[in-house]
Design brief:
With 394 residues, the chain is of the alpha/beta class. The protein has 10 helices and 20 strands. Helix content is 28%, strand content 27%. The strands form 4 sheets. It has a 7-stranded mixed β-sheet, with helices on both faces. The protein has a 6-stranded mixed β-sheet with strand order 2-6-5-4-1-3. Strands 7-8-9-10-11 form a 5-stranded mixed β-sheet.
């Protein structure tokens, strides 16, 4: 074979026949054509039958599959995939929505574009590559995004220095692929948010909690709310709109507290119901009294790798036990895990153990996940990373 190709070991095509989009290094018999990291390779079974085409990379996941069809990866391919992703967002009502211009346009494997994330904030798209292959193709992807969305899109910011493989020998620098406006206020269900894609976490905002924030608003009326790990204050601002009696936002980052206060100010200026504190979450929970009857726990990922799972579950138990101990009778707890390696069952067991430790009677009101613009490829269940519980505590 003269092309760049990956030949699988005998029998290792079974997961690909089930359309799972990852090929692990242990499944490979040999590599031909001397591909470099990020190149397109064609994948063959041990019997030389075509099975997939995708990006090759260094690491345990050796190939991320772009297509199971024997088709070339041309400019037209990228345009078609971006158009399909955009059509999904318009069909579910998060794109082209007069009260919402904040949504995820591309969610990696969920949109058959493994290694690529694109979030839309008003007139700006923020793109992140999690694979060298997507990094290599960033310019054509940007053109496809612009062509698909049209004149309403003014800026495309590329932000991948923290998401690309750290060993990859490439220039990972952030920068604008289109436009250059660094200031943006976007709208989520009628609320305004400053988005700091230059210095903020992820792409600048946690889009994946949009529907869960909206649900919280329905429970906030008359309640005393504590938003732990508040980041830029999303849950806090929905609670204020929902009629909360008071809202306290806590984050260990002074920058996050600054952004929270700025977001409160553009929605509810001079609102004395809100206060924010830059403090360690566990320290705050330890010293606070029984002052709250609605608590949100939305911590950063406690486990990014399977070898840290045990410690992560201990952390979730400890955090939730303290919240159960302190929340007022009749209180509601919104608690989340965004760790992909923590399964729904792992998380639920950790929270239930915490309830038992605190000796509280607890009922499940809702079981939550990521929103529809973060779709899960049915052949790639690993894409379901966000899990949450809404609990009534007697």
């Amino acid at each position: 074979m003269s092309e760049k190709a990956v030949i699988l070991k005998r029998g290792k095509e079974e997961s690909l026949q089930r359309f799972h989009p990852w090929i692990f290094s242990g499944a490979i018999q040999r590599i031909e054509g001397k591909p470099e990291e990020g190149d397109i390779v064609t994948v063959y079974t041990n019997e030389s039958k075509f099975i997939a085409r995708g990006h090759i990379q260094v690491g345990s996941i050796a190939v991320r599959v772009l297509t199971f069809e024997d088709e070339p990866i041309t400019d037209e391919f990228w345009y078609r995939r971006i158009e399909t992703a955009y059509h999904l967002r318009t069909s579910i009502g998060v794109a082209q929505n007069p009260i919402n211009d904040t949504y995820r346009l591309v969610h990696g494997e969920g949109d058959n574009l493994p290694g690529l994330v694109i979030d839309i904030y008003g007139d700006t798209a923020v793109m992140q590559a999690h694979s060298v292959g997507m990094h290599v193709n960033r310019e054509i992807i940007a053109r496809a995004v612009k062509a698909t969305i049209g004149d309403s899109l003014k800026n495309i910011y590329y932000k991948s220095d923290t998401t690309l493989p750290y060993k990859a020998d490439i220039d990972k620098g952030n920068g604008y692929l289109l436009g250059g406006n660094a200031g943006n206020i976007s709208t989520e269900y009628g609320l305004k948010f400053h988005i700091d894609w230059l210095r903020g976490q992820k792409t600048g905002f946690f889009v994946d909690q949009r529907e869960n924030r909206s649900l919280l608003e329905k429970y906030a009326k008359g309640r005393k709310v504590l938003n732990m790990f508040c980041y830029t204050g999303g849950f806090s601002i929905y609670a204020l709109r929902g009629g909360a009696e008071l809202v306290h936002s806590v984050d260990s980052s002074a920058k996050a507290i600054e952004l929270t206060n700025a977001n409160v100010a553009i929605n509810y200026p001079e609102d004395l119901r809100h206060a924010a504190y830059a403090e360690d979450a566990f320290d705050y929970l330890e010293r606070m009294g029984n002052n709250y009857n609605l608590i949100i726990l939305d911590p950063p990922a406690f486990a990014k790798h399977r070898d840290s799972l045990r410690n992560a579950l201990i952390g979730y138990r400890r955090l939730n036990a303290k919240a159960f101990e302190k929340i007022q009778p009749g209180g509601i707890l919104f608690t989340f895990s965004c760790s992909q390696v923590v399964s729904k069952e792992n998380f639920r067991t950790a929270v239930f153990t915490a309830a038992a430790i605190a000796k509280r009677k607890v009922r499940i009101l809702h079981q939550l996940t990521q929103p529809a613009d973060h779709p899960v490829n049915i052949y790639h269940p690993e894409g379901e990373y966000l899990k949450g519980l809404v609990l009534y505590v007697e």
